């Protein structure tokens, strides 16, 4: 009975810790969703900027420059993780997030928005680099997939929150309200300990033991301390060996078959996550619905889609550790491709003057189903599966490479989508994204292994 209690306490502490770090992810989600409700205003004659209405070209830069900031953030936080520790790096993410809202509030020029979105991207880069490492360090094997899915849940919740708030509040009021979220994160984060792996790398053995007890729910009288000491020794040996190996990291470490395959899978999953087009569609959601011919208002349609996104992410909690990573990736990628094909078909029929009277609800339904399927697998699995695929010795470096690659892919997609909508229409853009998904299904089936339940470090006896 005491062992069950210890496990329950450990799961509770792990969930609390992951939910706490994801508060800043929620805050980042609001910065991602900010452009959708306010881009039409910025492009109108009532633009709040002294430089006047934003052009299509400027709008594409406002959308895409966020990814360049993500690239900088991934590099900066990736390099600081080994020096400061995972928890401290996550705590520092509050700085660029609050800076975004300050600049938006005081900004009077489109160039101010460029800077703000670049800084917001740095927040995302930091999250993508540090969160998978934190979750891999503190979570039990049986719930690691669920905790990893929290990244998508909180990020998507932030997008939904911004769609709602942006529809209700004024341009200048939104930053004042949204700054409360990162401030709440800063307060609660104080109560989360550093990961035991980080503390062991800094030779803080006693603090590492306390940290592991917290994340495993070990309290006096509720757990066999002999088992804990044995597993703590295993962790010490693992960290010591990994540290010794890391100091001797060489080019040959990246040329082994396992390393090359792991890095290829990481970069490929980041490519697929972005070039399926869903993130770009969310970023320009209001504009997309204006193009699609939906009967609902663009703002209401965007809110519905974001809400469906939440449901899909919750569904992934149920399936990710039951069906497995590979199965969900296959189903999610194929379903996303089919959904985008259907949306493109409707857009083509509308563009070629087919009578679609009474069917204006179809784009919202199609994109809602597509969003749900995307969130069940392709949205979150690529991020937390990386530590399960990459060799331990190059895990940190390989993870950083993958996160840098996703920022580049995201920049390209966000930059070209407004141009694609103007040049080849919505149906042409969705055809490109759907084709990417179908090719991705083939590669997933052939190359990517199943990693469900893979033990990364410590035996589950703790």
TrEMBL record:
Residue span(s) of domain Major facilitator superfamily (MFS) profile: 17-452
Record flagged with keyword Protease: no
Main localization, broad class: membrane
Gene3D superfamilies: MFS general substrate transporter like domains
Protein localization: Membrane
Alphabetic keyword roster: Membrane, Transmembrane, Transmembrane helix
SUPFAM superfamilies: MFS general substrate transporter (SSF103473)
One Pfam family from the record: Sugar_tr
Transmembrane segments annotated in the record for this chain: 12-39, 59-77, 89-108, 114-134, 146-165, 171-192, 263-287, 299-320, 327-349, 361-385, 397-420, 426-448
Membrane topology: Multi-pass membrane protein
PANTHER family: AT22075P-RELATED, PTHR48021
Name the record gives this protein: Major facilitator superfamily (MFS) profile domain-containing protein
């Amino acid at each position: 009975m005491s062992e069950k209690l210890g496990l329950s306490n450990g799961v509770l502490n792990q969930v609390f810790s992951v939910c706490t770090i994801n508060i800043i992810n929620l805050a980042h989600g609001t910065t991602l969703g900010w452009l959708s409700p306010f881009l039409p205003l910025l492009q109108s004659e009532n633009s709040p900027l002294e430089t006047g209405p934003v052009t299509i070209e400027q709008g594409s830069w406002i959308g895409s420059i966020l990814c360049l900031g993500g690239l900088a953030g991934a590099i900066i936080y990736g390099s600081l993780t080994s020096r400061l520790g995972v928890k401290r790096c996550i705590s520092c993410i509050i700085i660029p997030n609050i800076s975004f809202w300050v600049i938006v509030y005081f900004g009077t020029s489109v160039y101010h928005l460029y800077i703000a979105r670049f800084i917001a991207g740095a927040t995302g880069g930091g999250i993508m680099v540090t969160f998978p490492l934190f979750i891999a360090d503190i979570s039990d094997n049986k719930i690691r997939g669920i905790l990893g899915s929290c990244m998508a849940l909180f990020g998507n919740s932030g997008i939904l929150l911004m769609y709602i708030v942006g529809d209700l509040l004024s341009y200048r009021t939104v930053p004042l309200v949204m700054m409360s979220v990162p401030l709440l994160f800063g307060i609660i984060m104080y109560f989360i300990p550093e990961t035991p792996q980080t503390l062991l790398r800094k030779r803080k053995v006693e603090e590492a033991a306390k940290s592991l007890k917290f994340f495993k729910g070990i309290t006096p009288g509720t757990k066999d301390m002999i088992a804990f000491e044995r597993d703590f020794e295993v962790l010490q040996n693992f960290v010591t060996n990994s540290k010794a190996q890391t100091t001797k990291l060489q080019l040959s470490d990246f040329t082994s078959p396992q390393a090359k395959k792991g890095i290829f899978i990481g970069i490929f999953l980041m490519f697929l996550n972005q070039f399926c087009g869903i993130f770009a569609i969310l970023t320009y959601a209001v504009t997309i619905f204006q193009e699609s011919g939906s009967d609902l208002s663009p703002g209401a349609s965007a809110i519905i889609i974001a809400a469906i996104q939440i449901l899909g992410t919750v569904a992934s909690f149920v399936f990710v550790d039951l069906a497995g990573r590979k199965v969900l990736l296959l189903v999610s990628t194929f379903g996303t491709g089919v959904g985008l094909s259907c949306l493109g078909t409707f857009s083509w029929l509308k563009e070629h003057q087919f009578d679609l009277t009474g069917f204006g609800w179809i784009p919202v339904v199609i994109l809602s189903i597509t969003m749900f399927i995307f969130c069940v697998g392709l949205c979150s699995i690529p991020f937390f599966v990386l530590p399960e695929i990459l060799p331990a010795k190059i895990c940190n470096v390989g993870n950083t490479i993958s996160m840098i690659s996703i920022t580049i892919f995201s920049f390209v997609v966000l930059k070209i989508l407004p141009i694609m909508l103007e040049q080849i229409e919505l149906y042409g853009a969705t055809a490109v994204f759907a084709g990417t998904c179908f090719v991705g299904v083939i590669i997933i089936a052939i190359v990517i292994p199943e990693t469900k339940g893979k033990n990364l470090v410590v035996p589950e006896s703790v």
